[in-house]
Amino acid sequence: MGGKAPSSTRPILGVHPNVFLLGLVSCFTDVSTEMVFTTLPLFLANVLGMKTAIIGLIEGMAETTANVLRIPSGWLSDRWRRKPLAVIGYSLSTVVTPLMYIASSWGLVLGVRVTDRMGKGIRVPARDALLADSAAAGVRGRSFGFHRALDTSGSLIGLALAAMVVFLTQRGTLVLTRSTYQWFVIVGTCFAVLAVALLVLRVREGPRLRTQVGPSPRLGSFRGLSSQFKVFLGITILFNLGQTHEVFLILRAQNLGLSVLHIMLLLVLYNLIYAFVSTPAGIISDKVGRKAVLLIGWLVYALLYLGFALSSAPWQVILLFVVSGLYMGGTAGVGKALVADVVAAEQRGIAYGLYNAGIGITALPAGVLAGWLWQTYSPAAPFFFGAATAGVSLFLLAAFLRT
Fold it and tell me: How far is residue 282's CA from residue 330's CA, in Å, rounded to a whole number?
């Protein structure tokens, strides 16, 4: 569904120029995000002395509060324009990031984190719809995979820079220091500003495609969206309810004896694999279908979380982070490409708003539940729960999604 994107614009590396440029914007933004916010659980635990339940609460509230904006943002992008919303969202995150330099209480951290995620909630549906508008149906998987590869390359660069800062300031120290984290904020803010400038000056929004299937749904309504989109959304929400936030993967690594520098290097390896796999996975999904790729990816995820639950040595965590990179690279872009396959062009904004919001709304219960399981039972408990929900979701995807 959704028609074809204009083919008159000369491709860059096999994709539409907008796909390439938006990939660079995401790349620079992720350099900032990884340096400032991926390391946040270490800052909260090591510098501010917060418990895992509070860390899970902060991440859950931030994601859930922010993601309610994804539905109105997507809906508005179908009726107005996509690029201005993307600019607003990226700019909002950029403005609040420097405040982390002076953060000394979890209340301020929560405010900054919520505002940063609000920015993401505003920009993501518009950006994803702009990507889908720019990609012809036959290369949609390649385009989303390419975007994910550049996005993840930003994570790789950000974590490599963070590891370099750690090496220069504290080397093998087991805990993160405030001065090291402040350097993360300085460097990350510079890259965030560069991303906004590139988006404003270089990305172009073309004329909107229409398929004559009827109007876009009303705000907050599923009416008019395909049944297959609704099925996929429901299964995805269930799957993500058991998906522990990245903060718990980081804390699990530290729990098993890895130093801050080793964790930074491990995240670099994870994102290197993630970036390397994303484009090939998208190309494969163009040929064999999105569902087959997602089924394999979710099976890997279930086994991966069993591994995190049962691991007892640092070398096992290293191996699991490698597999985690394979999983993320193989599924992240493919899931978004599938959304574009099962909705009409004029419904992409609201569809991506609902899809991203559906995933994000689960963040609060998932984060609080994971933190509670960790503190009440053991660090392995959240991962056993994630493996179980992944198994159920895998069965439902195989049984009920038709593509």
Answer: 8
As given in the structure block, the two tokens for residue 254 are: 């530290």
Q: Where are the alpha helices (DSSP H) in 170-259?
A: 178-202, 227-241, 246-255
- Residue 328 φ/ψ, nearest 5 degrees: -65, -45
**What Å distances lie between residue 217 and 67, 263, 290, 343, CA to CA?**
19, 45, 25, 11
- Residue 260, pLDDT above cutoff 90: no
Percent helix, percent strand, percent coil in the chain, to nearest 5? 80, 0, 20
Contacts of 95 (CB under 8 A, 6+ apart): none
Q: What are residue 12's DSSP bridge partners?
A: 15
Q: How many whole angstroms separate alpha carbon 313 and alpha carbon 310? A: 10
CB-based burial, 3-25: b 16+ in 10 Å, e otherwise: eebeeeeeeeeebbbbbbbbbbb
For 213, residues 6+ apart whose C-beta sits below 8 A from its C-beta are 1, 344, 346, 347
Work out the average pLDDT over 396-402: 85
Q: Is residue 286 within 8 Å of residue 167, measured between CB atoms?
A: no
Distance separating alpha carbons of residues 136 and 139, to the nearest angstrom = 6
Q: What is the pLDDT of residues 18-59, one digit of tens each?
A: 999 999 999 999 999 989 998 888 899 888 888 877 887 887
Tokens coding 316? 């096992």
DSSP code of residue 15: B
Rounding to the nearest 10 degrees, give the CA dihedral for residues 91, 94, 95, 97: 160
* Residue closest to 355 by CA, chosen among 73, 61, 151: 73
* Global confidence as pTM: 0.72
Give the integer Cα–Cα distance in Å for 267 and 258. 12
Cα–Cα distance measured from residue 233 to residue 217, given in angstroms and rounded to the nearest whole number: 16
> Would you tell me which CATH number, out of the four given (1.20.1250.20, 1.10.3720.10, 1.10.3210.10, 3.40.50.300), belongs to the domain 17-204+220-400?
1.20.1250.20
- Between the alpha carbon of residue 371 and those of residues 18, 41, 175, the distances in Å are 40, 12, 20
| Radius of gyration of the chain from its Cα atoms, rounded to whole angstroms | 20
